Structures are given as C-alpha cells and as structure tokens.
Amino acid sequence: MTEQYYHPIAIGRLLLPGNLFLAPLAGFTDQAFRSLCVDEGAALTFSEMVSAEGLFRKSKKTEALLARADNEKVFAVQLFMNSTETSLRALPAIIRHKPDIIDINCGCPVPKVIKTGAGSALLKSPEIIFRIVQALSNETDIPITVKIRSGWNSDSINFHETADAACQGGAAMITLHARTRSQGYSGVANLEHIKALKQASSVPVFGSGDLFTSEAALCMLSETEADGVMFARGAIGNPFIFSQTRHLLLTGNIPPETPKKLRVSAFLNHLDKSIAVKNENAACREMRKHAGSYIKGFPGASQIRRKIVRASSREDYEAILSEWVELHPQT
Predict the structure, then answer these.
(1) 194 and 307 share a domain?
(2) pLDDT higher than 60, residue 331
(3) Exposed (0-12), middle (13-18) or buried (19+): which is 330, by Cβ within 10 Å?
(4) How many structural domains is the chain composed of?
(5) Same domain for 288 and 247?
(6) What is residue 186's three-state secondary structure?
(7) Cα-based distances in Å from 117 to 125, 135, 235, 243
(8) pLDDT of 216 above 70
(9) Contact 8, 38 (CB under 8 A)
C-alpha cells in the first residue's frame, strides 16, 4: 500500500493538505512556474532564493521575487544571509508580503553565495544557524524552516548538528538535500542520511535530491519515512511530477508518460503566465531555459531546441512546437 505516503502535514501553525512541495530554485521557481506547479498539485511552493541584504537595501529586483501568484494560497519565501543582524533587518520587508513560511537557505553550493558566508557556508557554523532561526522565531509567528545539506564535504557530515541547531532555535521543519556541498549536484543523494535525520528529529523532515520521477519520490518516502518530499530540478519542464506522484502514492499505479500535446499545452500556459507578469519579449527570453526540459527525450527534440533559442514571441513558440507535434504525431 502506498497511500500512507501521501498525507496532510502540519508545519508550525500551518496545516497543508499534502506533502509534495516545490523547492526553491534560483532562476526557475518564479511566480509563473510556481503557479503552474500549484495547478498540478504542489501543496507548497517556495520562492527563488532571496537575498536578505537585498531586501534590506530595498532592491526592486529582489523585492519582485516575493510576489505570489493568484493561486498560491500558501507560499514560502526562502532567504539567504550570513548573520542574525541581516535576517532581522530584512524581516519588515518580508512580513509586508505575508508569506506563510520563511525558509533559511543553509545548502546553496554556489561559490558567489558561499563567499558571503551564506548558503552552505553556514554548515560550518551551526551556532550561527541557531542564532538566525532563534532571532526570527522570536520576532514573528510565521513558521521558520531550514534547508540543509549532509555536510560541507565527506569529512564533515554534520546534518544532525545543523538540524539540531535549527530546531533548538525554533525551526518548524527541516529539509535535507542529502548531498554534501562539495558534491554540488553530482553523485547520488544519500537516503540513509534522510532516514537517520527523520528518526532523530522532533519536527517534520522533508527529503530532497534525485527526485526526477514519481517512482523516485515513492522510493525516498518508503526508504526514509520522511514526512514529505521537495521536488527541485525534477520539476523543471515537468510540473506534472506533482500530479503523477500523487497518483502513484494514492493508487499504487505508475502514471503514464505525459503526452507531447499536453506538454506543449503546459509550456504555452507557462509562457502565458510569464507574459502576464513580464512583457512578452522578456518572458520569451526567460522561457528558452525551460523549453528544452519540456521536450527532453522526445523524437526531434534536439532540432526543436535549436529553433527555440531564436524564438522571440509567443507566436514563434507556438509555430515551432506545433511543427514538432505534426512531425512526430505518435509520441
């Protein structure tokens, strides 16, 4: 039986109807994409990673990342910072946007983030994680959650210590991407780390890493007994992963491959949502990085990708994708 793995989840004062979340992804989980994932069944979506310092300095570009889609009944903001002072200075700007959760990034492996002392750099200093979470928890009743990695490298696996520090500070949930900072996104996520953290934790634990199919999500849930999963790269070009995973967990049946026409329809819907927020030219440029993922693995995909990089209007995209469907109607 698999239905036991899909269930409501309480995070602090917040009760969510499901346990399949969209992870924060810089450059991808913008308002339009999050809206599409909600349509497909994501119970909670996270903003792109937001600079606490940028918010404090009133950066319009940073502030824009906090806008929520009309269908996002619940919405989490993920922040990165290197100190308690920075997080508290940004808090008034965050509260104005009324997020349902504030998530602290302690896992980003990107060098430009690490060199500021934020992201994965915080894995080296559990005491700073404790102070940041405690300070925010004391200043707001919005649940504070934390995303961590297994450790800085294979010689410093310390997810228990960083999770404990976050929980002692008042964290309402921990998400573990079960790779080290030095691994980046290479290698394989270590499910044993998620399992061990779940067994030791007093708050909900979500797993992340290598979730590219509904079957992978079921495997993570069954092997680790995590409270839920957070899809990241596996959702890019594949917002259907939420409805597919829910179907698998509730019925035990592996969902069929999403038909090409439905993928094209979803892509154009995604583009329309983006155009509604940005101008058409900007939205079309942004969608080039999504397009390849929507058609990946299908016949003729490489030829279509070469055409898409020149698309500059919705009409261009629709013509290119319609041609692709006509050339390969059976897939």
Answers:
(1) no
(2) no
(3) exposed
(4) 2
(5) no
(6) coil
(7) 10, 18, 29, 37
(8) yes
(9) no
CATH number at residue 294: 1.10.1200.80
Residue 281 to residue 34: CA distance in whole angstroms: 20
106, 111, 171: which is closest to 145 by C-alpha? 171
The DSSP 8-state label assigned to residue 230 in this structure reads E
- Picking from 135, 131, 175, the residue whose alpha carbon sits closest to that of residue 21 is 175
* 266 in the same domain as 245: no
Residue 152: CB atoms within 10 Å: 19
* Predicted local confidence at residue 149, as pLDDT: 98
Same domain, 211 and 86: yes
Catalytic residue among 106, 108, 167, 284: 108
Query: Which CA distances in Å does 181 have to 28, 247, 309?
Result: 21, 33, 32
Residue 312 is part of which domain span? 260-327
Predicted TM-score (pTM) above 0.90: yes
191 lies in the same domain as 279: no
Give yes or no: residues 91 and 38 share one domain.
Answer: yes
Q: Which helix (H) or strand (E) holds 39?
A: helix 31-39
- 123, with CB counted inside 10 A (0-12, 13-18, 19+), is buried
What is the Cα–Cα distance from 298 to 301, expressed in whole angstroms?
6
CATH code (residue 25): 3.20.20.70
Q: Tell me, yes or no, if 108 is annotated catalytic.
A: yes
Q: Same domain for 264 and 217?
A: no
pLDDT tens-digit series, residues 224-245: 999 999 999 999 999 999 999 9
d(CA 148, CA 105): 7
Give the angle subtended at the CA of 151 by the CAs of 48 and 111, to the nearest 5°.
Answer: 50
Closest residue by Cα to residue 54 from 79, 32, 34: 79
